[in-house]
C-alpha cells in the first residue's frame, strides 16, 4: 500500500491549526477532618464565604467558616464517602439552583435534583441561592389580596400579595393544612406556588404531593424537599433554594408567587447543628448569634415589587412550631418580629373541634383591610370583636349565672359564628361565598337556625345563592363590592324561613 504524503501533510496541518494549549488551573486543598456533614480543609487560603467546593468524589460543599489556617465547609451530600486527605478544589462560584417553568409539577432536592422519578429537569435558567432583597424604592405597599380560601383567615387575618404572614402553633394543630389549602385555592389565579418541606418525614411529604396532585394543584407548584433523613446542610439551604426558584417567576416573568417554608424551626435546628459543629460560639438556647439574620435575609426577599420593577410579588408563609404554646421562645419571637403578622393555632381549640383552630385574640395581620375586597372588609369588620366578646361571655356563662336577654343573644350569635368559621380540610371557599355566609352570620340571619344545623344551612345557602342569585355573586367576584345589601337580606330571610320549615 502506497502512503500519500500529501494526505498526511494536510492532516498534520489541520491538527496543528486546531491545537489549543489549555491549562486547567485550580486551587486545590486537602481534607484534614470530616464528620457529621462538616469538613475542615487546609490549603484553600483564597476561598470565600458561601463559595462552592468540589471533593474528589464529586460531592459539593459550601464554605461557611474562614479561619486562620483552615476553612470550615458544609458538605451538600453524602459525607460518609469523604476521607481525611481527600483533595478539594475551588469552583469560583456561589451556590445556585436551577429555576424556570421546567420545575413546575416536580419534587426536587434543595440542589434542584429530581426526587420524583420523572426523569431529568432540563432547566435553562439558574438563580443564586443568596440574593439581595429588593430595596425600599423597588417596593410597593401590599394592596392585592391573596385569598387562602379559609373563612377565619380571609375575614380576620387577611394575607396580601407580597406579605410575610407567619403560621405558628404546636405540632398537630393544622399548620400544614392551612398552607396546603392556600396552595389549592390559587388554582386559576395565576399564582406560582413553592412548598418547601424541611426536616419532615418522607411519608408526610409524599402525602402532601399526592393531595396536591389529586386537587390539580401540582401543575403550578414546585415542591422542595429536605426530609428528616437528609443531612443538616441540605435542611439549612432548603428555604433559600425554594425562595430562589420562586424569585425567577417574580423577577423574570413579572408574576405572582407564594412560598411556604414548612417549617423554619427545623431549619433553625439544622443551622444550630452546623454552627456548633463548626465551633461557632453558642448564644441563647445554643443557637448561633446570626440566627436572626439567617431568617431575616430569607423573609425580606418576600415583596410586592413596584411598577417599574414589573409589579410582581413573592408572598411568604413561614411556619413555626412552638413547644407547649411557648410563643415567647427565641425562634418564635424572632420570626414574629420579622413578619407582617401571625396566624396562631391553639391545641385546645383543635381538640374541641374548632378547625382551623385559629386563635382570634392573638392572630393579627399588619396589612389588614388593604388585603381584603371591600365587601369582606365592610361585613367582616365586627367579626373579631363579636368572637372576642363571645369567648369572655362563654367563660362567664359556664359558671351557671343567670344571664340577661342581651347577653344570652350575644352568646347565641357567637356560637353560630364559631360554627360558620369551621371549615373542612382541602375545601377552600371562594371569596364571594365567604362574604355571603359571613354577612348572614354577622347581620343576625342565622340567629333562628339551630347551632347543630349551621353547617348544613351554610352548604344549602351557598348552593342556593350560586344557582338562583348568581348575579349578586358575580358582582362580588368582579367588583369586590356588595351593592345589593337589602336584596341579600331579603334572600337570607326567605331562605331561613324555608329551611326551618324543611327541618321541622
Describe, in plain words, how this protein is organized in 3D.
The structure is a single chain. The chain contains 16 helices and 17 strands. It is α/β, with parallel strands linked by helices and 504 residues long. It folds into 3 domains: 67 residues, Elongation Factor Tu (Ef-tu), domain 3; 275 residues, 3-Layer(aba) Sandwich (Rossmann fold), CATH 3.40.50.300; 125 residues, Lysin. The radius of gyration is 28 Å and the shape is elongated. The termini are far apart. The model has no long low-confidence stretch (mean pLDDT 93).
CATH architecture title of the largest domain = 3-Layer(aba) Sandwich
Q: Count of helical segments?
A: 16
Per CATH, the class of the largest domain reads Alpha Beta
Uncertain parts: none
Largest sheet: 9 strands, mixed
